[in-house]
Design brief:
Elements: H1 3-8, E1 10-17, H2 23-33, H3 42-53, H4 55-63, E2 71-76, E3 79-84, H5 93-99, E4 105-111, H6 118-129, E5 134-139, H7 148-159, E6 163-165, E7 167-170, E8 178-181, E9 186-189, E10 201-203, H8 210-216, H9 218-234, H10 240-244, E11 249-253, H11 262-272, E12 279-280, E13 285-286, E14 294-301, E15 311-319, E16 322-323, E17 328-330, E18 335-337, E19 343-345, E20 350-352, E21 355-356, E22 361-366, E23 375-377, E24 394-400, H12 406-418, E25 423-427, E26 433-437, H13 441-454, E27 458-462, E28 467-472, H14 478-487, E29 492-494, E30 500-504, H15 507-516, E31 521-523
Parallel strand pairs: 1-3, 1-4, 4-5, 5-11, 6-11
Antiparallel strand pairs: 2-3, 7-8, 8-9, 9-10, 12-13, 14-15, 14-23, 15-22, 16-21, 17-18, 17-23, 19-20, 24-26, 24-27, 25-26, 25-29, 28-30, 28-31, 29-30
Helix pairs in contact: 3-4, 8-9, 12-13
The protein binds guanosine-5',3'-tetraphosphate.
Guanosine-5',3'-tetraphosphate binds next to helix 2.
Amino acid sequence: MNFTQEIARRRTFGIISHPDAGKTTLTEKLLLFGGAIQEAGAVKSNKIKKGATSDFMEIERQRGISVATSVLAFNYKDKKINILDTPGHKDFAEDTYRTLTAVDSVIVVIDVAKGVEEQTEKLVSVCRMRKIPILVFINKLDREGKDAFDLMDEVEKKLGLQVTPMSFPIGMGYDFQGIYNLWEKNINLFSGDSRKNIEDVIEIKDIKSNELDQVVGEKAAAKLRDELELIQEVYPEFDRDAYLEGNLQPVFFGSALNNFGVRELLDCFIEIAPSPRPKDSDTRLVKPDEEKLSGFVFKIHANMDPKHRDRLAFVKIVSGTFERNKPYTHVRLQKTLKFSSPNAFFAERKEIVDISYPGDIVGLHDTGNFKIGDTLTEGEMMNFKGIPSFSPEHFRYINNADPMKAKQLEKGIDQLMDEGVAQLFTLEMNNRKVIGTVGALQYEVIQYRLEHEYGAKCSYENFPVHKACWVKPDDAKNEEFAEFKRIKQKFLAHDKYGQLVFLADSDFTIQMTQSKYPSVKLFFTSESE
Ligand code: G4P
């Protein structure tokens, strides 16, 4: 297979949802179809196994949430699928936002009874901002839920999407009979058995024919005909370009737990979902089929074993091929690095690979060279855009609770921040360190990991900050900037890249500051362009 074909066959995507909608179950069923795992339950039991051997995962197990983002790759038909798993828990949302910089499309899972939930809204708004193609899977059709049309309305209104159903349920809950597949024009009957043979699909070329009545009964057939007519009137026809541009979102119905509607979803997905897309850098747009390698780090995973402190940096390949032992340029450090054991990820294992293609994720062993957002190239000095830090929602001073371990604490904080666990701000006035997080849970994770991985102890102290605003002084008038710095000195800090940050205690303060010092521009993410 040549380079272009390798790119064209890749599908790199994320599955996002509010916790409990069925993301893990759907992921597992997709892996089953790909032959990547042999039995249902493998994904979850894998999680628990890890939990038994690593302290950090113990937290995950106790809390019942998935903390870490992982990559699951498998082949299905002629496609290479890369699923980037994302933690659903809101306290780890930033991890998910960063993963969304590395996907080419997403599948959103929605619970048919609960409808659109809070976390779904947040994550979808990030996808919309980035114009990521979105496909919607409405799950748990074996249960009583909302009416399919009402639910599609809700998806449109709350998520700001324009949907078009690609499949449609025949009944629901107790009366759930199956799915009419508008894409393939056939019916898949539900037997309520999760080991159901996936081959017995009934072809219905003409929904007006008697065959439909025989298969689902007269009443359900009449209802389905009315519904399909309504769909034709109300929803636009599927248009791939509109989907790829982020302007149209196909919807599927099914039950992940019963392995129902999942094959339909996957078969359609691999046809319509985008292969790796071009990505913007600070100097130019980089296309996947360019010969030279480029890629960026979107995730750093700590090695949980305190004896082996090396970490794994996850690199998304944007263009060219990544080859083992070939020298690459680490743009930020202006350093040449070679990697003798780059990892590729499969469902249940990782393995050393000689060559990876655009869309793939490689895991590089790292002893401290990488930070989130770092770019690798073959010499070109450019940086990929779109991996900003968002303002944290919680802020606390971090204090050293064991004076003998000051060095360990510093190193631990430094490395955890490189991993993107939280954000560190150093106050200009007195050099005190402030940790900002998206959720309160991260403080516990940090404390736990500092102790178990670095042998350091910390305590926290409240710091009443509402929002971090990045300050770009370049355009500011000199006097105005000096005045701003003098008046706000107690609230000025530097992030870990040395950028100036104003820690504001309320929206009111932000407004007042903006009107008083109009030339001092405040930004709510670290990337101001
Ligand atoms: P998440 O990753 O989005 O958080 O959700 P997950 O897949 O873990 O699913 C959450 C719960 O919903 C699980 O039940 C799962 O079995 C159930 N579920 C997933 N898909 C379906 C479906 O199509 N129909 C029905 N009825 N249930 C579904 P649980 O009781 O929390 O966990 P478990 O003990 O069953 O594993």
